[in-house]
Amino acid sequence: MSKFRESLNVFESKDAARHASTLFRESFGSDFPVPCAYRILDTMVQPEDWRQYVAIYTWPDGTEECIGFCNWIKYKEVYLEGGLAVRKSFYRRLDKETYADCSGRGGIAQIIMETAATELTDCVAWFGYCGDAKALRVDLRVGYEQLDHPYLIVKWMQPLDEATRKKWIDDVLRIGPF
């Protein structure tokens, strides 16, 4: 196993704020999205509908650092993905060998999404909003597709006929950016 793989731990956390609140504030300039009950259109989501993943890196001196975060909220039979953040300074602090290993795996954002994709399979699709070209390249590598609607992307987790896909796209479009 590589030094990078041994040093990186990506996992779902029931207390992601403890790990990722500083990273989230640095990335988005807003408070961390703490799981809570609230209404999305006609559906109530509960704290247990939130799935939050963090990426913790252990440096050679033993220091642990949260370098990545992403949030998924279960809405009916789909997940709404948002809040994907990677610590901006992380990559430039890696030695060349570790950087090459991390880059060869697609980077932290891709690793987080690939990890979650093995666990968040109780759905028909993941939806996200993406307006950043670099982030979109990562999203496409993990299976998202661009739609005819600005910024809305989807990763189909089950085979669905076109009418059912359209129903889900229309439903998520009613939510607006998330």
- How many domains would you count in the coordinates? 1
Helix content: 25-40%
- What fraction of residues sit in β-strands? 25-35%
Q: CATH topology, which one?
A: Aminopeptidase
Main sheet characteristics: 7 strands, mixed
CATH superfamily: Gcn5-related N-acetyltransferase (GNAT)
Please tell me the overall pLDDT.
96
How many helical stretches?
Answer: 6
Strand line-up in the sheet with most strands: 1-4-5-6-7-9-8
Determine and state the CATH class. Alpha Beta
Query: How many β-strand runs?
Result: 9
Overall shape: globular
Ends apart, CA distance between termini? 37 Å
Radius of gyration: 17 Å
In the CATH hierarchy, the architecture is 3-Layer(aba) Sandwich
Residue windows where pLDDT falls under 50 for at least 5 positions? none
